[in-house]
Amino acid sequence: MNTDILIVGSGCSGLYCALHLPKEKKITIITKTGLQDSDSFLAQGGICVLKDETDYDAFFEDTMKAGHYENDKESVSIMIRSSQNVIADLVSYGVEFSRNEDGSFIYTKEGAHSDNRILFHRDITGKEITSKLLKEVQKRENITIYEYTTLLDIIEADGACVGAVIATKDAGVKTISCAYTVLACGGIGGLYRHSTNFKHLTGDAVAIAICHGVALKNMNYIQIHPTTLYSKKPEDRSFLISESVRGEGAKLYNKDMERFTNELLPRDVLSDVIKKQMEADGSDFVWEDLRTIPQNELASHFPNIVQHCREQSYDVTQECIPVVPAQHYFMGGIQVNHNSKTSMDRLYAIGETACNGVHGKNRLASNSLLESLVFAKRAAMDMKNNPQNATPLPTIDLTVYQNRKELEEKYRKLVLDEIDKTNQEKGE
User: Fold this and answer.
1) Is 404 a catalytic residue?
2) Given 267, 346, 363, 378, the catalytic residue
3) pLDDT at position 246
4) pLDDT tens per residue across span 177-231
5) Residues 194 and 228 both lie in one domain
6) Domain final position from 296, 327, 358
7) How wide is the angle at C-alpha 79 spanned by C-alphas 46 and 34, nearest 5°?
8) How far apart are CA 186 and CA 195, in angstroms?
9) Are 129 and 87 in contact (CB under 8 A)?
10) Which of 3, 232, 235, 378 could be a cystine partner for 28, CB 3.0 to 4.6 Å?
11) How far, in Å, CA of 15 to CA of 3, rounded?
12) Pairwise CA distance, residues 428 & 419, whole Å
């Protein structure tokens, strides 16, 4: 196979990147499972935006404070300054955000935000954004998407990425040559027993980067979401109870139904508080009370959460629900510059796979969709401004990729070992 640009991943960052690449370029998107099996579809809360210039300093400070001031300041500034253009793009693609009767945007607030600056679509903002991006991508004749197609390796020649080894659903293992490769493979939640991520997201791109000596950054910066619906079944993906629920007034109680914390603490701080409360209570969960939110607000803003809880036999209008922290987001990953370039020539990384330093040590709520889109577009612009032609591939022995299970285990171990190694180096 051959293409001009290969994008690995069909989440919001991969799709948005494809939409900003030149229409005369042949673009190929591969995705490990189905088109809707990306964490972008699962994002509930919303997407941050700079409402006006008066909010810039507070938005910047909120992001830095949540990230323990380990953020890349330039990356944070780029994200905030680019937010209004991103929202304009999304609206042009048909994305619908909640609005007032006069047509103006409704802004909500989440933990660690000092002001209401988050746009949302009920409690399925990620699905609304990603589905509309996907529809737009499917209109483009120059973009081809292959589902159930896995990246097994990248192909390196003279220090540059010139292609990839992929496994298709029916045709087996093959190579694909390209001028540029973009890694948009999502997070690492599939490595954990309790995670809000899809199980197939196991950090493949990070493992491949390790194999090729591509620079990594902050590999041990892994965010725990403080409130996911408790389940006794370990095979269940942890269902996220959005930060927005607490932003709208939901409360947290201990086993004696007593409030024990400020619900709007940054995620990492609140997760630690909940864990300590669980230990003190000798319980596997704490209680979250959504009854503090008016029922009409629950129905209009959080219908998906209400429905899922009902399916699990909880009526959030009448009773509290059990919640527990779970792995949620990967702030570390493949190190990239402000244009999403990795340390290897012709190789980019965007979305949760990449680490451009925006989030620092802890991600501020609803910055993930924005950061993914902003830096996906910058990757596309950088490729557009620096055109390259595909080069002949070196000879590749494809037999080494035939044992998929063995390769998957190798990659899982590489990522987990790198996380442990980084923890030891930082004394954390």
Assistant:
1) no
2) 267
3) 94
4) 999 999 999 999 999 988 999 999 999 999 999 999 999 999 999 999 999 999 8
5) no
6) 327
7) 50
8) 13
9) no
10) 3
11) 16
12) 11
